[in-house]
Automatic annotation (TrEMBL):
<keyword id="KW-0472">Membrane</keyword>
<keyword id="KW-1133">Transmembrane helix</keyword>
<feature type="transmembrane region" description="Helical">
    <location>
        <begin position="45"/>
        <end position="68"/>
    </location>
</feature>
<dbReference type="GO" id="GO:0016020">
    <property type="term" value="C:membrane"/>
</dbReference>
<feature type="transmembrane region" description="Helical">
    <location>
        <begin position="144"/>
        <end position="161"/>
    </location>
</feature>
<protein>
    <submittedName>
        <fullName>YIP1 family protein</fullName>
    </submittedName>
</protein>
<feature type="transmembrane region" description="Helical">
    <location>
        <begin position="121"/>
        <end position="138"/>
    </location>
</feature>
<dbReference type="InterPro" id="IPR006977">
    <property type="entry name" value="Yip1_dom"/>
</dbReference>
<feature type="domain" description="Yip1">
    <location>
        <begin position="19"/>
        <end position="187"/>
    </location>
</feature>
<feature type="transmembrane region" description="Helical">
    <location>
        <begin position="173"/>
        <end position="193"/>
    </location>
</feature>
<dbReference type="Pfam" id="PF04893">
    <property type="entry name" value="Yip1"/>
</dbReference>
<feature type="transmembrane region" description="Helical">
    <location>
        <begin position="88"/>
        <end position="109"/>
    </location>
</feature>
<keyword id="KW-0812">Transmembrane</keyword>
């Protein structure tokens, strides 16, 4: 069984990325009916895309250095690479745990409990924010482009949530708002936990 199983018959990762960026409303119905496994989604889609930001950020900091008030500082390569690795692992953990949360919340908003559909939702809606990580190669562009990517990912999530989790229209907006709050809380919790690690 291929790690890229969910989309291997439809043109691969590039086709799915293009669909999520250019026509998410038309891509979600395709996604809903696809067979998938958690392993396939995580290894075949989330893992490679989530690596873009940390890798580009580390390269950008090492090549250009961080800048504070117009003063360029020299980044420490080992520390920078270590930070990028932690960011990457946090991205993977956040994606998987958020899918569990979305699945568990489904019945509260008239939807369903389905971990695979929830993981599809998290994996594919995250496309824009993960791809925006390429702009971290140049640190001053990284943050604004990450914001734009995050906003587009939220839009994709908003479109996909009612379809994949079968939430009725009148409750989908509240479900979406709760998912956003849970995303922020989960990311903050994981960041605090790793912040206390030696």
């Amino acid at each position: 069984m291929s790690a890229a199983e969910p989309f291997s018959k439809r043109g691969g990762v590039v086709t799915r990325v293009r669909g999520m960026l250019l026509r998410p409303a038309l891509t979600w119905p395709e996604v809903e009916g696809e067979p998938a496994t958690a392993r396939g989604l995580m290894l075949g889609y989330v893992a490679p895309l989530a690596a873009i930001g940390p890798v580009c950020s580390a390269l950008g900091l090492i090549l250009f250095g961080p800048s504070i008030a117009g003063i360029h500082l020299k980044a420490q390569p080992l520390e920078t690479i270590g930070g990028a690795l932690i960011d990457y692992l946090l991205s993977l953990a956040t994606a998987y745990l958020l899918a569990l949360v979305i699945s568990a919340l489904g019945p509260l908003f008239g939807g369903r409990t389905d971990r695979i559909q929830a993981l599809k939702l998290v994996a594919y809606s995250g496309t824009a924010v993960w791809l925006a990580g390429v702009f971290a190669l140049y640190p001053t562009l990284g943050f604004p482009m990450a914001i734009l990517g995050a906003l587009y990912s939220l839009y994709a999530l908003f479109l996909g949530l009612p379809r994949l989790m079968r939430a009725p229209g009148d409750r989908a907006l509240t479900y979406f708002a709760v998912v956003i709050l849970c995303t922020g809380a989960l990311a903050l919790f994981l960041r605090l936990v790793t912040g206390f690690m030696p």
